[in-house]
User: What shape does this take?
Amino acid sequence: MPGKAVQRRSTPKEPRTEVKSLFASESAELAELESGESSMKGQQQADEMGRGDGANIALLMFLYLLQGIPLGLAGSLPLILQDRHVSYQDQAMFSFVFWPFSLKLIWAPIVDSVFWSKMGRRKSWLVPIQYLIGFFLLYYSFHIQEMMDGGHRPNFKPDIVTLTIVFFMLTLLASIQDIAVDGWALTMLSRHNVGWASTCNAVGQTAGFFLGNAVFMALESKDFSNSYMRPMFNLPPQNYGIVTLSDFMFFWSIVFMVATSLVWLLKKETNQSIHHSENELELNVVDTYKVLWKILKLSNVKHMVAVLLTIKIGFAATDAMTGLELIERGVPKDKLALLAVPMAPIEIILPLVISKFTAGPRPFSVFMRAYLPRLFMGVVMAFVVHITPQLKSGEHEFPLYYYLMIFLVYAIHRVFLYSCFVAQMAFFARISDPAVGGTYMTLLNTLTNLGGNWPSTSVLWLAEYLNYRSCDASGCVVVVDAYYILTGVCTLIGVGWLLWGRKVVNKLQDHPPADWKVIL
Assistant: This one.
């Protein structure tokens, strides 16, 4: 039955980076940065958690972990596909897999407002959606290898169209599950523990993405399996990893269905905390869409839309292509994935440190100061890609100092990325109308994610037409590399954007919060 939608305080999912594959595309990280805001808000004391909510917190973390599994798998597929030498046009098509989290504002009001009261407001969506994810994983676990390599047939081209549809649906279902779990977290936890909701999001999604991405790619790699896993069990080397994509999907399909059944049967949905601001309105689904339209008609918001949809063009080639280019030049994808593990503590600390500089009345200024250095790091990454073949010590082997260099470049890049992210979130929190805070923030986050997705998809599509190879009987040689062209073009566009964007952003920051309100 329809109910009133309590507006969720959504947080953005753009690359806190989960522990993920190194230089994974920004699109693949969207779900994880949405949970990044949580680390800036602090946590409740551990003794508070003990007051009856320990089991609920554990359940929420597990539900968010489940959500991270299909997201991690989707994030690993571009790197696996690159290992199979698919075209950039294919990569561009597959990048649409990451769009559902950028568009979930379209269906979020429906998920928040329509439910079956006998089952519960959140379980009405959570249970069927998680069953669907489980059935999807189960069914395609028997067909995924055929789509990837034709059953190990030589020179088989992966079925990109079907793969895109399958993983798009998985990501779409995960985005709906995210809305349901976010909403349930606010009522599952008691009032004094509700601050743990965002922590559960951050920890659970990070763990799930890590399992579905870095852990899976390591176990799927024959080199990692032969070097580390099989010797532990005295197994002979094989020409494949210890776990296949099919095995991984099958295992998690069972976990999804068993866990969903237990939640359905054993967990009652009760409202322990009325967690929305006393100043925040309760809106039904129709009212929510009306408010969204009113927000978009504000003059300030129109300028903000222009900023958010263009602000990441300068970073597009770096974010979308760098990891793929490293794999193309022989860097093992499992090594790139595992290099992200030591970054986890840094990525937890960075938002806390940077947030101290965004507490003033003009937080977006921190973004603008980090913008040019982040553009420069894109050029540095292009240089690293360029020298990679010269540093190779054998087939798919690189010296230790090469991986240390990548880690250092990656860490510096992350400082500027997080500076942009934290500043942007602080500005959103400052301008959002408290009366419709959840709707306002979700709209701004959706625009942010769209502003990262469309440039990434575009550069991958353009790369296919800008690459030029000269081929003869001995093979093909790249004469014109689209990566360097697109990195240069995006960087120049970014510099031009900075000249325009700085003025617009400064004017937007000059407006008092009252100028952004839609409910007077």
In short: Residues 1-21, 34-50 have pLDDT under 50 and may be disordered. Strands lie at 5-6, 282-283, 468-472, 475-480. The chain has 22 helices and four strands. The radius of gyration is 23 Å.
